Amino acid sequence: MGKTFAKPEALSDQHTHYCPGCTHGIIHRLVAEVIDELGIKGRTVGIAPVGCAVLAYNYFTMDFQEAAHGRAPAMATGIKRVRPDLIVFTYQGDGDLASIGMGEIVHAANRGEKFTTIFVNNAVYGMTGGQMAPTTMPGQRTTTSPFGRNVEEVGMPIKMAELLSTLETPGYITRQTVIKPKYIVRAKKAIKKAFQYQLEGRCFSLVEIVSTCPTNWGLTPVQALKWAEEALLPYYKLGEFKTPD
Amino acid sequence: MGKILMKGNEAIGEAAIRAGCLNYFAYPITPQSEVAEYLSRRMPEVGGMFLQGESEVAVAYMLFGASACGARVFTTSSSPGISLMSEGISYMAAAQCPAVLVNIMRGGPGLGGILPSQGDYFQATKGGGHGDYRLLVMAPASVQEAVEMVMLAFPLAEKYRNPVMLLGDGLIGQMMEPVEFPDHLKSEPTNKDEWATNGMDTRGSNKRNLVKSLFLDAGKLNDHNLMLKAKYDRMKQEEIRYESYNIESDYKTLIVSYGTMSRVCKTAIDNMKDEGLEVGMIRPQTLFPFPEKAIYEAASKESCKIVVSIEMSMGQMVEDVERSVKGKLPVRWYGKCGGDVPTPEEVVEAVKSF
Q1: Of A143, A129, A31, A47, whose CA–CA distance to A90 is shortest?
Q2: What is the pTM of this model?
Q3: Which residue of B has its CA nearest to A107?
Q4: Which domains does chain B have, with CATH numbers?
Q5: Are A82 and B73 a contacting pair at CB < 8 A?
Q6: Which of A72, B30, B93, B233 lies at a CB distance of 3.0 to 4.6 Å from A47, suitable for a disulfide?
Q7: Is A63 an interface residue toward B (CB < 8 Å)?
Q8: Which of A66, A75, A107 sits opposite B214 (nearest CB)?
């Protein structure tokens, strides 16, 4: 009897640098499984962001580029415009995509660039040490909102999936999470669908994934899952916001 | 093909196509928007790709992404736009991605003006973006030379795996001159499978490629910078280009000038010769690497008493001229940078005043 559960070929054997309870590992695995299942590793190019996933190329095993902060969608545009046959995905966090990279993601989506974005939203800047992000919840304490996010001063958290789904250009925009096994199964289906739309040359696709950051939230991994469910999911509602069909 | 009359900006666009570059990303900015206008029509005719990005910031990364998967790419912009691209230029230099960028300079700082200037000399030759990197910088003095330099820029960018910048001023972009296009270059970029992220299937390889600029280990980052420095040192050995003018005469004054300004200086030198006053000139065609040795040798001539850097800036290249002359002679600066190009008469007056 052979192995019934193995690491996807699209992932390396290297241990990740992610903190205990962080969901990047799960999301990496889902993306890798989809790439394996679609048999596209040899023609896929990933783009790493600036943020906790900056070293994603140490874990994925296909060609990779490393972007500047927020610029991954512009690099993905460059690749797809000169090599439409390549399968391209950006892997970005919420500081990267929703703050400094807001312009790049909106315009790439609006041009209908045929790449896939995996957008990991954990409501905080992770790698720089837990600063406030555009996605930080009202009242949420971070190292730069020590008294809690004051929406009078900095506005409400940005809902990227909803914002991008207002664009008239066809696209596939969905929000998922991986904080429970049932959600993980759904998230994988969404990621696969996103890559399939790209393979068919249909549209831009983005899967937002509500994620956890126990370290910067100051919670244990179990508490973090609970907080994500109770504090984030009511605001960041799951579902498909836009499909090209 | 014979000579045709063409605007500098359009000729630059056509030259890129003839250099085998069929991928152009850009954002409009005066005084170079005609390149984008020309190529938006021309690229579809030759099966090429034109994309107008949402900002110069994004355009730089479109170039980076496309270059990193092995495509021959270029963009054009003007001073404020190049400031915005400078982040991406630093990343491209760090990740060793070839690209050609054209800066049709306008007056600065800030929004400045839209008339010709040479105020971006420092930005082009000393950095612009962060970190220890250099661009190979070429400065055309005519539309014909802009065409030739564009066609040279692509092979050089690929030879060194480094961005190459063409530094022209608004006049080079806006004026019409007769131009003759050289033959097409071989269109396919070569030898990129070693490093480009063009897909493992494309290379028929199991080895994946990474294009990155992050080196968290201090020793590795130092080694990376030493490797980059070795490339820049090699450019200094192999790529210096300059033109000498009236250098065989017994000149008392040596002018160093480039681009449009050098053409005015040539007229001034001819006029002074008629009066019996000999003035020589070195015109750097590459600003990095800089023709230090040529300037030193020209300044070492027995008859030469003074060196004057004449530029459409408040004195930027003059610092490299001083460095080249090594204190052997006094070095002076003359220039303007509001958008008016100094006239030959003003140059003569300035030279006589020193």
Answers
A1: A47
A2: 0.97
A3: B54
A4: 4-197+228-237 (3.40.50.970), 242-353 (3.40.50.920)
A5: yes
A6: A72
A7: yes
A8: A66
